[in-house]
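>> received
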Amino acid sequence: MATHGKKYLEAVKQLDRTQAYHPKEAIELAKKMAHSRFDETVELHLRMGLDPRNASQQVRGVTLLPHGLGKQVRVLVFAQGEAERIAGQAGADFVGSDDLIKKIEDGWLEFDTAIAIPDMMSKVSKLGKILGRKGLMPNPKSGTVVAAADLPRVINDARKGRVEFRLDRTAIIHVPIGKVSFDDDKLMGNLTAVVEAVLKAKPSGAKGQYVKTASLTTSMGPGIKLDLKPTLALTAG
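>> returned
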């Protein structure tokens, strides 16, 4: 059984595990309980009423966090020819083709998001086992396989705080929404953007209750149960 340090145990005394908190209260509490020396990430966890084994009940999408993620995003682009020039001018941190593929095969993974042009996917596909485990594999469904002309927009979005969400094998969606150092309003804005995107991504094969539970947590903190009704009622409008 995992044991927790004194700071964690002291912080968790502020949490009533029997209570479901309004999103605003949960954000305030998460920030109060953060006890690490580093700027912890705040995460939203959604337990979905979906079957991960059913192809018609898959959820996958992307959204732009209006207030970003609070960190510098290192962007890699698999491209060649004119697309390589466009990606470089658009500010990608790493651009290349066979050279980058070989580097990744040798164990290098010092980037946060990967983008590819369609012509490169036949080569990039052999990195599936490496990048797939890290959630870094370019995919048309997540908007990371794009035409050369769209590279500047996609690279810019990645810099701003573009996050991908997907249903995992345990029917849970995990999404970062910012840092503990963010103002409460900024975390609320990012949370709202994620909730809206997940609701819009509801698959046609979904049956029964779409979102079963929701919780908020920080990198080193306990889960804070969210009151589902006001959480799912969040809207940027």
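>> The first strand starts at residue 41 and ends at 48.
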